[in-house]
Specification:
The structure holds two protein chains of two kinds. Chain A is mainly alpha-helical. Chain A is 73% helix and 0% strand. In chain A, α14 packs antiparallel against α15. The mean pLDDT of chain A is 90. Chain B has one domain: SGNH hydrolase (Rossmann fold, 3-Layer(aba) Sandwich), CATH 3.40.50.1110. The chains are: A mainly alpha, B alpha/beta.
């Protein structure tokens, strides 16, 4: 069930209506049932996968807790009799057991994700090697990727790791854990929530709060505006350019790159706005996933502001543990001896960064273009970190200050850099992506744009006008948002102005939205991950 | 404070509903100067006097080939053609079901050509058959039966959701006919006076299976039942159009069906001479549809059968009806005159030759 389908809107109306009618103690149960109904529409078999993840995580969470309790009781009961070494040995034994259970949970659930998502990728690579040696190729398997599996698996694994670390206890009610994993607004494209962030407001009883409801609804509308008016309109030109690399090279690659940046932003942030807005209408607080990422002045800042919950997930569950694990400390030690203090200190950071970006790449898709995209991101981040002192010297020498002009330059540079990297996402083929990137420099002919070619990309003049106005509204919104919530600002305006804005937003979606017959119904880009 | 909030909310909803209504009216196709057959169904519902002896349901084979004015003038039969382009049998059934909420005719004439289609065909024709219906259960059921996979039921309830993207195609026609439309047809009859003699048609291709589909029969059964339940005589009619080809095997199935259900089946293709049709002068598109001259001849022929078979009373002496039908006849003859004038001036009819008239303008 797509967020943009009429079925979903009907479903949502029914769920929200029931949510505030039924006794409050049943609210979370209604959300659980609704989430499973929502997921059911993506296929029966998908329900099986998510249920397996929920059940395995639930029981292993309880097991981890019981081992903790067992340790506590044992130590309490034998307080006087155990030596320090005995206590330590017992703790180590329990820790090892807990580690095994955690590992089992991770391997099992990430294994499901890996098998479903990456088997064909692995087969394709094995086949390339087999072809070299003229061996028979393996046949591909036909797995249907359950909707949102990457999101719910990561969310669940975050939960079990936190339970293992003792950040919080396990959820004792399997229904509540199931709701945390399957909460329908965020099930298919995130944000990747943390249990301690979401659970409290998810299970709480909520009375109808008109302000919250109205703000949530406004946010949902804003999300639909981005998705339907901008993303689903511009996608036609993006596909025309990227599906025909032989026809559209040079300046068109630049156009496609910028158009894709607009599409991706409007699509993904629009989807998240809908998610957060729906949750808010239900009185539930879901974490923000974006903070005006295209205003970032560096790639590091960009990744702090884009898909925030994914970035922090990788940081907390891969980067930090990897940076301080035993082999990494050994690496640091040996690097210090060999390359000196500075490099030795940074060595674990390099390795962990590369590992994180490799994982980020492959999380986005099971193909080489995503892996290369991820690694390039990591590479650019490391290089820019290493060159930081050099930049500082340069800025000092040439008196480059924090002027508006320089900041603007930094923003545009970061935007273009990130958009260039995303070419790998657009063309989905490493070779073609690099070729197209090169053609921007070797075949750049701006005049091509003024010979009516833009009108051959599947968009007409009125489409471009709508897009231009839409993008101006997006930028204005982001500029205004820098000094505080736009909804708060609108709410203090006179009623007539306020309502005019709401009505205009509503009808701009209805009239200018790219939906229905004549437009391809586009899935949210991040639904595919 | 709470009261104020509720009032603001209600006002907001009212404003949104009003704007949605106005935008929907503006954005829906008007069918006034182009593809005028799209306006036919709505015209039936705008008709004030819904009291007819005979109701026709079907596709262009009824709304192009029979003239209610002739039936009135020749036999005193009041009739209306609930026709629309490529009206399929499920459209016909639900249109009839809906029409019976307004009136109860003595006879229903159903054009059997649509039996050849067992599955939904084109969205554009669905729209022409359904959009003109006011919102009702019949309309919803019709849309459900007619929809293609890419269509959504809600767009038949709120057509704004279907036509929203017409904002960049709006023309003077949309503004001119935003709230009020011209009458296009004469009790459902779409008049054309131009002539294009019948030529040769492609040889009828052989079909893998000549049997009408299950769905077609299912809806035909429903039409029969609906008529029986309402004590209405049903006539199955194959109109005198030479193309699409009406296969012998199809004819046999209709004969069988009519016999089994004690219905009158008229295949006018067997009576072309009795009707007096001359396909050199009585068709405007080489034999697919009749022009005014042909439609009037066909109506005289059909009217005679209806009158004798079902003892329909001559209602020409009814003063109210007389005045009403005089008004209709005046509009009819005025349009006839106008069309001849147009033919004389341009050599073709503007409304039906969009391309040529656009080029000339």
């Amino acid at each position: 069930m797509l967020f943009t389908s009429y079925g979903f809107i009907l479903f949502l109306c029914v769920v929200i209506g029931l949510y505030y009618i039924i006794p409050k103690r049943f609210q979370w149960k209604l959300l659980l049932v609704s989430s499973f109904v929502f997921y059911y529409f993506s296929g029966w078999s998908n329900l099986l996968y998510i249920s397996v993840t929920i059940i395995s995580t639930y029981f292993i969470g309880l097991k981890l807790d019981s081992l903790n309790k067992k340790q506590e009781i044992y130590l309490k009961e034998n307080k006087g009799t155990l030596s320090r070494e005995d206590k330590k040995a017992y703790k180590e034994k329990i820790k090892a057991k807990r580690w095994k259970w955690l590992l089992l949970c991770l391997i099992f659930n990430l294994g499901i994700l890996a098998v479903i998502k990456y088997t064909n990728f692995a087969i394709a690579n094995i086949n390339s090697i087999f072809t070299l040696f003229k061996m028979n190729e393996l046949s591909f398997v036909n797995f249907l990727l359950p909707m949102g599996i990457s999101f719910y698996t990561f969310q669940t694994m975050g939960y079990i790791i936190d339970v293992y670390r003792g950040k919080y206890g396990p959820e004792k009610n399997i229904g509540k854990l199931a709701l945390f994993v399957s909460f329908f607004p965020q099930l298919i494209q995130g944000p990747i929530s943390r249990f301690d962030d979401l659970s409290l407001s998810l299970y709480k009883e909520h009375g109808f709060d008109s302000k919250n409801f109205s703000y949530g609804f406004q946010r949902v509308l804003w999300g639909y505006f981005k998705k339907l008016v901008i993303a689903d309109r511009i996608v036609v030109a993006v596909l025309e350019i990227t599906k025909n690399p032989d026809t559209y090279d040079g300046i068109f690659v630049l156009v496609g790159m910028v158009f894709y940046a607009v599409q991706l932003y409007a699509d993904f942030t629009g989807g998240i706005d809908i998610t957060i807005g729906i949750a808010q209408m239900l009185g539930i607080k879901v974490k923000e996933n974006f903070i005006r990422p295209y205003f970032s002045k560096s790639i590091v800042e960009y990744w702090r502001r884009w898909h925030i919950t994914m970035g922090t997930w990788f940081k907390d569950y891969i980067f930090y543990p990897l940076s301080v694990c035993k082999p990494m400390l050994n690496l640091s030690k040996s690097s210090r001896n060999r390359f000196g203090e500075k490099i030795g200190k940074r060595a674990p950071v390099y390795v962990a960064t590369i590992a994180v970006w490799f994982t980020t790449g492959i999380w986005h898709g099971s193909s080489w273009n995503f892996i290369v995209w991820g690694l390039l991101n990591g590479f650019v981040i490391l290089v820019s970190q290493e060159l930081e002192p050099l930049y500082a010297k340069f800025h000092q020498k040439f008196h480059v200050g924090e002027t508006f002009g320089f900041r603007l330059f930094q923003v545009i540079r970061t935007f273009l850099l990130m958009s260039s990297l995303r070419i790998l996402d657009c063309y989905r083929d490493v070779g073609v992506s690099f070729k197209m990137f090169g053609s921007m420099f070797t075949k750049l002919n701006i005049n091509e744009l003024f010979a009516g070619s833009l009108l051959k990309l599947g968009l007409n003049i009125s489409d471009y006008i709508v897009l231009l106005i839409g993008v101006i509204i997006l930028i204005t919104f982001s500029l205004v948002q820098r000094s505080g919530s736009v909804r708060e600002k609108i709410s203090i305006k006179p009623a007539i102005l306020r309502y005019t804005i709401y009505v205009l937003l509503f009808f701009s979606i209805i009239i200018f939205g790219a939906y229905g017959i004549g437009f391809d119904s586009n899935q949210f880009i991040y639904n595919q991950f | 404070m709470k009261k104020k909030k509720i009032i603001s909310f209600v006002v907001l909803i009212l404003v949104i509903s009003l704007l949605a209504f106005l935008l929907q009216k503006l954005l829906m196709p008007k069918y006034m100067t182009q593809i005028v057959e799209g306006a036919l169904i709505a015209e039936y519902y705008d008709e004030k006097n819904k009291d007819h002896d005979v109701l026709f349901v079907g596709d262009c084979e009824v709304y192009e080939n029979f003239s209610p004015i002739t039936l009135w003038e020749e036999y005193g039969i009041t009739s209306y053609i609930l026709g629309s382009a490529q009206q399929l049998i499920w459209h016909s059934y639900y249109l009839l079901e809906d029409a019976l909420k307004y009136e109860k005719p003595d006879v229903v004439v159903f054009s059997v050509l649509s039996m050849m289609y067992d599955t939904p065909q084109k969205e554009a024709y669905n729209r022409m058959s359904i959009d003109g219906m006011p919102l009702s259960l019949s309309k919803i059921k019709s849309a459900k039966a007619a929809m293609l996979p890419e269509e959504d039921l809600i767009t038949y309830i709120f057509p704004l959701l279907r036509y929203h993207s017409r904002w960049n195609e709006l023309s003077n026609e949309d503004f001119e006919y935003w709230f009020k439309k011209d009458k296009i047809a004469h009790n459902g009859y779409l008049m054309r006076v131009d002539v294009k003699p019948a030529g040769s048609f492609p040889k009828p291709r052989k079909l893998a299976d000549y049997r009408f589909g299950e769905t077609s029969y299912k809806y035909l059964d429903k039409i029969v039942k609906l008529c029986k339940d309402n004590d209405i005589e049903l006539v199955l009619l194959k109109a005198p159009s030479l193309y699409p080809h009406w296969y012998e095997q199809w004819d046999e199935q209709m004969i069988d069906y009519a016999n089994k259900n004690d219905l009158l089946y008229i295949n006018t293709l067997n009576n072309l001479d009795d009707i007096g049709l001359d396909f050199n002068t009585d068709t405007y598109d080489a034999g697919l549809h009749l022009n005014l001259s042909g439609a009037e001849k066909a109506s005289v022929f059909l009217g005679n059968i209806l009158k004798t078979e079902f003892n329909l009373a001559d209602r020409r002496q009814d003063e109210n009806l007389k005045a009403l039908w005089k008004e209709k006849a005046d509009a009819y003859y005025k349009m006839e005159e106008d069309q001849y004038k147009e033919l004389e001036e341009y050599g073709y009819l503007l409304k039906f030759n969009m391309k040529r008239s656009a080029e000339n303008n």
